[in-house]
Amino acid sequence: TPEETSRLLASFGVAPSRPKVLLSDLMVQIEGTSELVPLTWNPPQRQILEELGIDPDNPNPDLSNLKLRVRILKARRQGISTLWLALMFLDAYNNPGRRNLCVAHDLDSTESIFETITRFQKNLPQDKRLEPKRSNRRELYFEQIDSRIYCATAGAENLASGSTLHFLQLS
Fold first, then answer.
1. Distance between alpha carbon 36 and the CA centroid of its chain, in Å?
2. Which residues make beta-bridge pairs with 148?
3. How many Cα atoms within 13 Å fall on the side-chain side of residue 63?
4. How many angstroms separate the Cα of 88 from the Cα of each of 32, 33, 36, 50, 165?
5. Dihedral-angle region of residue 26 (phi above 0 means left; psi in -120 to 50 means alpha; beta otherwise)
6. How many C-beta atoms lie closer than 10 Å to residue 86's C-beta?
7. Beta strand 134-136 with 167-170: parallel, antiparallel or unpaired?
8. What's the gap between Cα 118 and its chain centre?
9. What is the value of pTM for the model shown?
10. Across residues 126-145, what is the average pLDDT?
């Protein structure tokens, strides 16, 4: 469990001493510009969260014990992928020992998804930012809390082979 992982990390002196990352800490880019703004849920995102039983007004939704399997046929440009990426990022960043994976249909989409996740991390307030041990191979690995976020392309050999995943998004 995340609590056990936290205690184990603390016993080795590597437990993070930082405040939790909140939804309002995540920055997104306004389409067609280079301007970054704090992420807020739009109406379609709020509706999905409500239907999943997640309070859209909670700045730090706890997904660590949520067991869901959701299929969403989505329209483009409504922020649904951003919704899942933000939840995936918050889950990995706030809960030690997480393994989260996003799989895209092609390499360009995989790169775009990884850029969004990397943007979340790079633009966090300094007091909440963990520097990843690895930020390559389309993976962010936070050694301090033993959490990873992978981005991969469908059809790749050995995709997540041998991994226990906590959060999976197929885009």
1. 18
2. 99, 141
3. 26
4. 24, 25, 20, 17, 11
5. beta
6. 21
7. unpaired
8. 10
9. 0.82
10. 84
